[in-house]
Write a structure and sequence with these properties.
There is one protein chain. The chain has 171 residues and is mainly alpha-helical. It contains 7 helices and no strands. Helix 3 runs antiparallel to helix 4 (60-87), helix 3 (24-54) packs antiparallel against helix 6 (114-141) and helix 4 runs antiparallel to helix 7 (145-169). The protein is elongated and about 55 Å long.
């Protein structure tokens, strides 16, 4: 392919030439689902990092350590999710318009106990479980083994995160 042919490739023509055995309509739908999961993963990464910095109290150390482990794993997952969107023929989301809404407000942190921070993270991870499960089922129904496998891995991470976070605040 000459340089002029490469220069003429647009996201639309690239998308139109993807022929990996997945229906074009499905690829568009799952790419949207994965874009939403990617945004939620970034939000949870940032929340985990902010809580890592600001947690106080008797359970500081286990929360501090666990949130560090989580935000590192979550950040790594963003690349995997974005690359899957690209492999499906779509652009990974590039807008930063909503980034401000990803982090908790200072007033929320000032008023949050360690228990409230952990509960907030549990709620986010549970939503991630529901979203990954729904998209994974759609991927499976459409024969998209790669996306299904990736989402199974994400679901495994989020379910384990819920368990570990719950164990920290168990009474």
């Amino acid at each position: 392919m000459g340089s002029s042919a490469i220069a003429s490739l647009t996201p639309e023509t690239t998308r139109d030439t993807v022929n990996t055995g997945l229906d074009a309509k499905y690829r568009k739908e799952i790419s949207k689902d994965l874009s939403d999961i990617l945004a939620a993963t970034y939000r949870l990464t940032i929340k985990s990092h902010v809580y890592h910095w600001n947690v106080v109290g008797p359970v500081f150390k286990p929360i501090h350590d666990l949130t560090e482990e989580h935000y590192n794993a979550l950040f790594g997952a963003t690349d995997i999710i974005a690359e899957r969107i690209r492999a499906l023929g779509y652009l990974a989301p590039v807008s930063l318009d909503g980034m401000k809404s990803f982090a908790p407000e200072k007033s929320d942190i000032d008023q949050s106990s360690a228990h409230e921070m952990v509960q907030d993270l549990i709620d986010e991870h549970e939503q991630a479980c529901r979203d990954a499960r729904k998209a994974g089922e759609k991927a499976g129904d459409n024969g998209d083994l790669v996306t299904e496998d990736m989402l199974t891995e994400r679901l495994t991470f989020h379910e384990k995160a819920c368990w570990m976070l719950r164990a920290i605040i168990a009474s």
